[in-house]
Amino acid sequence: MLHWLSNWITEGLKNSPEILLFLSLSLGYLIGSIRFGKFQLGGVAGSLLVAVCFSLLGVTVDAGVKAVLFALFIYAVGFESGPQFFRSLGIKTLREIFLALFIAIVGLITVLIMAKLFHLDKGLAAGLAAGGLTQSAIMGTASDALTHLGLSTQELSKYQSNITIGYAVTYIFGSLGAIIVCVNILPKLIKRDIRDDAMQAQAEQLNGSLLLNSNQNFAISEISGRLFRLSHKTNQTVAQIERNINGISIERIKRGNKIIEVTPETKLKLRDIILVVGHRDSIIKANSLFGTEITSASGMDFIMNTQDVEMRNERYVGQTLSQILKSEEVKQFKHGVYLIAIHRDGESVPLRDNVKLQLGDVITIYGADSDLRRVIDRIGAPITKSQKTDWVFHGLGLVVGLIIGLIVIRIGDIPLTLGAGGGALLSGLLFGWYRSRHQTTGNIPSSALQLLKDFGLAGFVVVIGLSSGLEAINTIKQQGLSLFLIGIVVTLLPMILAIFFGKYILGYKNAAVFAGALAGARSANPAFGEVLNKAGNATPTNSFVITYALANVFLTLLGPLIIAFV
């Protein structure tokens, strides 16, 4: 009975491997959440370990699933970071170039030394590099280089088979070890915390302003509304009062038991109840003019909204805030509307008098719907907040990325390509940058973007574990643990040396930025995913995308070099 049940479950899983995919995710994140002192494995690494265990069942997942999941993850990462990435390019990226080059050189030297000490042939050495450095392209370039050595058919077949063996044995720890180094070892060696440094970097990007979650508000709001019963006689009109007290607007007037229409020419009378909206300090200044503040009055409820608007009116482009707000034209139509924030390329712009507006700036304004519509018509187009994803835009982005990944450039006999992952990353960067300049297209809710990153990466490593785990386990049984242990050295040594190189030579001080750069220099996507989770924001992404692109070139070139020198 038990045997029949076991066979039934195994056959069922083989026909429905998606069950193991989601079970690995569930159990992996559960295991990854367990803390051992200050060490925490994390959901991605936990999912990988669970998937390796499930690989003993012999269930395989189509390689196309892995490609789709990784494309979703890396495109989402690029899209989120596009604006900051292109703005950060410059002299500062030299240290990312040197870090990626350092990892490649030290990785090559480590593999050559291990091959010499343990008498590894060319095939095992190349597979060791491909798995230990998690750069699958090394297998292709090394295999191609073997074909140019004039080897016999038997020798060529042996070496090429050994590439696969070396890769299978070392790849699992290549992924897991990179996570441990980036998330746990790096912060300890440089004595910095990834999350703290990520928050600090984000605060600097926001120019000192605070980033609130959707359910957060300031205890003391900058814009507020107050009710007053006029206890001082005044013959001033609404327009005169608003002109004399900058930063307030009178939104509603109750005279006796009637709500009367508010116009610029309306004169206020003694005992009128008025709703005043404006900047907190301006309302405080107006207290002496209006008289008695009251807590409530029937019919005086008033709804205000916040709206993001994309700047499209070229008349105001290049002008400072001071020039715009003091112009007679703006004074006439801005009644009841308050400037809350300006964002440019995803970053906060300080609300200073000398700040000049640019096309594509996202201007956040606050006011009543009727007032907002009047201002929006003059300055640009409203940015609609929607829970729907613009899949016309993002579907095209993924297609463009995957097509870019098909392009192969040959340097001699060495084929260089970004691959599907690199292409999707580049496309994500470009489409993310375009979205920052054209906010009315390419919408994707932040929660949807986070799902693409989390599920894409974790699902990707689960497919790797299910597909390669059994082969790695069987090879270790046949070959012994020596190759596996050598792989640990190849994985850890270059990264640990790179931490000291980055800290003392390149001058990395921010742990989040450094961890992202290190993960990219090792083309370690699972490690980068865990760094992002640890950081809590996108701070590590800029350094990652630069070193990741470079690593795809530098590490790929190791294949022919290993074949030549082993």
From TrEMBL:
GO cellular component entries: plasma membrane
Membrane topology note: Multi-pass membrane protein
Annotated ranges, domain RCK C-terminal: 207-292, 301-381
Pfam families registered for this protein in UniProt: Asp-Al_Ex, TrkA_C
SUPFAM superfamilies (UniProt xref): TrkA C-terminal domain-like (SSF116726)
Keywords in alphabetical order: Cell membrane, Membrane, Transmembrane, Transmembrane helix, Transport
Regions that span the bilayer: 20-36, 48-77, 97-117, 163-186, 391-409, 415-434, 482-501, 545-565
Gene Ontology MF: a single term: monoatomic cation transmembrane transporter activity
One annotated GO biological process: potassium ion transport
Record-linked InterPro entries: AAE_transporter, Asp_Ala_antiprt, RCK_C, RCK_C_sf, YidE_YbjL
Compartment(s): Cell membrane
Family that this chain belongs to: Belongs to the AAE transporter (TC 2.A.81) family.
Protein name: Aspartate-alanine antiporter
